[in-house]
Amino acid sequence: MRAIRAEKQGGPEVMQLVDVATPKPGAGQVLIRVEAAGVNFIDIYQRSGVYVVPLPLSMGLEGAGTIEELGGGVEGLKTGMRVAWAHVQGSYATHLVAPAEKLVAVPEGVSPQLAAAIMLQGSTAHYLVNDTFPLQAGQTCLVHAAAGGVGLILCQLAKKKGARIIGTVGNEEKAALARGAGADELVIYARQDFEAEARRITGGKGVDVVYDSVGKDTWERSLRSLRPRGMMVLFGQSSGAVPPINPQLLNQHGSLFFTRPSLVHYTATRAELLGRATALFGLIRDGKLSVRIGATVPLAQAAQAHEMLAARKTTGKVLLQP
């Protein structure tokens, strides 16, 4: 098999395509032929050293493919079945051994590419609008990077709940995509101040919630965009880490709530994992959720995929094709 490995942390160049022996699945595991692997900011954080991880690092956490072999004691799965997963290290590869409990069956009508594109970013959008801050009809949310992989799905799910959506984007092309996903108002951050726009659009009241995946460049203005007792949901840091926060800021801006959630804690049980995946796959199959695949890159060009994502040159999901 072939896989992308990093012997040290650093820039995209530390990732190398290597030939390794195809592993055998152990008890409770399955061997999967990977058909598509998702590229995510968490991969960049692991590769660059933002997150401390054991080395050498087998890159990638998300994907979809076909089961080729079952280990002992695996029930409910069979060879030839298509499955998808998130949070299984080593997904940038032609083959992967994964715990059976981490896998979700991909239903008919959902391609491996769509399945790989939805597991991490789609599940993130799902928990953000349903659990972290359960949106209700008539509420207003501010969504940063509204044309990104999470952003486009989040806008669609928020619109289904009857929420008003203010999205931030980098240019007119991205604004059109976010508008198509349900965003009511678009702020192009290169030429507009999203804090001032959020206040103007809400008549000075502020938004109910900010879904912020950008971090360092946006968090202070995100706080100032909220209504009293609003919630700041920081679920990423594409521009860099947020510095330590004085809790008194939350008081000064109106008894705000601040949370830093992670998907792993919102899919902590098998039931949660299956519930989110089943809901998303059902929406895709029924034509009620559109998943944009912005770029598909050969496995050997994983470094290029990281550069594209980090430079915010993509819209929707970036996939690697083994």
Architecture blueprint of SSEs:
Blueprint: E1 2-6, E2 15-19, E3 29-39, H1 41-48, E4 57-58, E5 62-70, E6 82-85, E7 95-99, E8 104-105, H2 112-118, H3 121-132, E9 140-143, H4 149-160, E10 164-169, H5 172-180, E11 185-188, H6 194-201, E12 207-212, H7 219-224, E13 226-234, H8 248-252, E14 257-259, H9 263-266, H10 270-285, E15 293-298, H11 302-310, E16 317-321
Parallel strand pairs: 9-10, 9-12, 10-11, 12-13, 13-14, 15-16
Antiparallel strand pairs: 1-2, 1-4, 3-5, 3-7, 3-16, 5-6, 6-8
Report on the structure:
The chain has 322 residues and is an alpha/beta fold. It has 2 domains: 148 residues, Alpha-Beta Complex (Quinone Oxidoreductase, Chain A, domain 1); 142 residues, 3-Layer(aba) Sandwich (Rossmann fold), CATH 3.40.50.720. 30% of the residues lie in helices and 27% in strands. It contains 11 helices and 16 strands. Strands 3, 5, 6, 7, 8, 15 and 16 form a 7-stranded mixed beta sheet that branches. Strand 13, helix 8 and strand 14 form a beta-alpha-beta unit. Helix 3 crosses helix 10. The longest helix is centred in the C-terminal third of the chain and has 16 residues. The chain is globular and about 60 Å long. The chain starts with a strand and ends with a strand. The mean pLDDT is 96.
